[in-house]
Amino acid sequence: MHYTNRSIQIIASLIILASSWSCRKSDKVNSSPSLMLSFSADTVMFDTVLTTVGSVTKRLLVYNHNKNKVVVSQIRLGGGSASMYRINVDGQAAYNIQNVEIEGNDSLYIFVKVTVNPNNKSTPFIVSDSIVFMTNTNRQMVQLAALGQNADFNIGKTLKGNQTWDSLKAHVIYGFLRIDTGASLTILPGTKVYLHKGGYLAVSDQASLTVSGQWEHPVRIQGDRLDTYYRDLPGQWQGIYLERGSLNNFLSYAVIKNGNYGLIIDSLITGSGYKLTMEGTIIQNMVYDGIYAYSTSVQSENCIIGNCGGAALRIEKGGNYDFKQLTVGNYWSSSVRNTASLILSNYSTDTSGRQIPYGLAANFGNIILYGTETDELELDSTGLAGFSYLFNHALLKTSLKVGNANHYQECQVNKDPLFLNPSIYDYEIDSISPAIRQGVPMGVTYDIRGIKRPDSPALGAYEYFKKN
Q1: Distance of CA 112 to CAs 46, 140, 281, 299, 458, Å?
Q2: Please, is 82 exposed, middle or buried when counting C-beta atoms within 10 Å of its C-beta (0-12, 13-18, 19+)?
Q3: In three state form, how does the secondary structure of 220-275 look?
Q4: 290 with 305: CB under 8 angstroms?
Q5: pTM of the predicted model, to two decimals?
Q6: What CATH class is the domain 38-147?
Q7: Rg (CA), the chain
Q8: Does 283 have pLDDT greater than 60?
Q9: CA triplet 89, 93, 97: central angle to 5 degrees?
Q10: What is the pLDDT of residues 153-175, one digit of tens each?
Q11: Residue ranges per domain, the chain?
């Protein structure tokens, strides 16, 4: 027992001594004029920031690699109170902070944000500043840089008459933008349209939307957070609604991404024309469906639909559809997906469970339909209405039997198309892809990039060609 008590006394004494030594060490300040701080980055960079829209918060770590404590006499923004940047140091938000202590072999967090003020520039511009550190008469700096972009803001707005948007400014939608009855909106090449969280674009009865992009200068429609974290984050906005009665809608070389839905298309128009015509358009990274179409009509050439948590293309309640040189690659990984990428249905169900039939006519020529599910094709029909569909030269991921020539002509089943890199939305095909030379002329002379197709074209939106 005596030995045990003695041991306890020795251990307690050592703890007291260690604590005393530790306190004395932490209390000692290194005031050497040669002392230098270290930083996690020499420049805090922000991606494009829309004017008046705040950035994400970036983090800068300040390291004291010395064994003793240092006192940073001043941490300030170089631009002072006029700076577009804001800093928060150890929970204190200010432009100029005095006497900040950093323990030996410890670090300090500084959080940085920027809100860019608008100006008269039509092209992106650099907004620069710095964080200045004064330690023992030493002056050190960390640079701050952001790319600012002026924007035209549309807040719960209804457009009347015939409107045109160009690329001189970005266009930001808060809440909604509605194209009013009888009105039209034309969006020119290179224009960027950003939607704030929860925002949507709606095309009313007798109204129309025309997107006139080009391969080199597409029209981009996406969320308004442009930092790296948000670059491929789905669910940032609601979708584009082509409402019942809207007509003559046209999408050429649009890139639509990171929403809940890409397009929701409601009801046929009167007459023989298509409600929506699409070419060279890319829809990707949607929480639900890339295109949700019901009782409507769509004509599409050289389009791509990739990575959707629901269907890439969901067709319900019949309608009239013609898709040529379509690529569907669904490798969705943000949640569990139990939905086929292409769904065809010719009925709806009322509240009593009764089927309401609608005739369907759908043609798919020279297409690729592939993804991670066993069945990427779902056919859901009632015999009460016509259910006409044809896959004419296609590569399909499905367990369905494709022997019926009325529905399947020269189709390959369950062969990997060998996309170059679908994880980064690159759906070009590899040199040994089974899609090469498997198509027939469909009247779509050039692929999505403008490359001329041979007499035996590849399936999908991309023609294969050997790069130098």
Answers
A1: 10, 17, 37, 48, 49
A2: exposed
A3: EEEECCCCHHHCCCCCCCCEEEECCCCCCEEEECEEEECCCCCEEEECCCCCCCCC
A4: yes
A5: 0.84
A6: mainly beta
A7: 30
A8: yes
A9: 60
A10: 999 999 999 999 999 999 999 99
A11: 38-147, 152-429
